[in-house]
Amino acid sequence: MVKAYNGALILADILLLILKILYYICESVYKFFVPAEEKSVAGEIVLITGTGHGIGKELALRYASLGATVVCWDVNQESNEETVNEIKKTGTAAAYAYQCDVSNREEVFSVAERVKQEVGNVTILVNNAGIMPCHTFLDYTIDEIKRIFDINVLAHFWILQAFLPSMIEKNHGHVVALSSLAGINGFPNLVPYCASKFAVRGLMEAISEELRTSSKGKSLIKFTTIYPYMVDTGLCKKPKIKFPSAMPLVSPGQAASRIIQAQRCNYREKTVPPFWLLCNLISRFLPDDALRCIIDFCDSGVEADS
């Protein structure tokens, strides 16, 4: 009798699980055709790393135009000040420039404390800074590999440790991290870079799940991971594109617009352009040899730096 009762409970739980899965599938399909309304960022304090040029600079300018207070971090003080001066000329929002080597944990915590005292608690954090040396694997030096992981991965840990506590305390905030398509698929001449971007993906998935479970589902802090295709920022010194009209480099402005849209719509993951995420999901159902045929046909990536 007890066994039959327990069996009935298990069956009921399984049926409930199936119903929940079907519900969330339908919800996902609905959201695909009817995108979520973009939430306001006016009055939020947005900290962006790597704002001296490229995507980071465009993000700073666009968040400022939306009424957010922008905190700009870059190791290059001169270019960082130029970004802040451009924002100030528009008169749209307050902007602050801080020089910071994000790979240095002590410096991150020191500058973070200054930000808290001079600006306030950061509510939107965009970990954008990154480097991308392109060599064949055996041509990377020890220092290059360490530097890639210091900036592309460990910096995320130090910055999260500095700013996440205040978000948790207020149960309000959004963390955005830039991974890459190279954080979904491996590419030749980018082995350490790919490994670093795969690490960012794992970090974001794990910390999001940890907060969800530790708060028993009550955490309102959002996490968004972005996977850009090759962006024309100068990092891709020798891009290899077989079909440039169909697969052109993404401009920093285009990338910034997509990133901000993903953050404002609370997307958990987004590729730039968006179709790459669907392409990746479909490709994972293919046999390995079939997938390699597609990769060989597209023949895109980066050449090794000379």
TrEMBL record:
Gene: 105623670
GO CC field: lipid droplet; membrane
Membrane-protein topology: Multi-pass membrane protein
GO molecular function: all-trans-retinol dehydrogenase (NADP+) activity
A Pfam family: adh_short
Family: Belongs to the short-chain dehydrogenases/reductases (SDR) family.
Keywords: Lipid metabolism, Membrane, NADP, Oxidoreductase, Transmembrane, Transmembrane helix
Protein name, as recorded: Short-chain dehydrogenase/reductase 3
